Amino acid sequence: MISNLTTYHKGKEDPTLLSPLNLAFIGDTVFNLLVQEKILSMGNRPVGKLHAMCAQLVCAQAQAQAAEKILPTLSREETDVFKRGRNANPGHRPKNANLAQYRAATGFEALIGWLYLSGDFERLHEIFNLATQES
Question: Domain span at residue 57?
Answer without folding.
Answer: 18-131
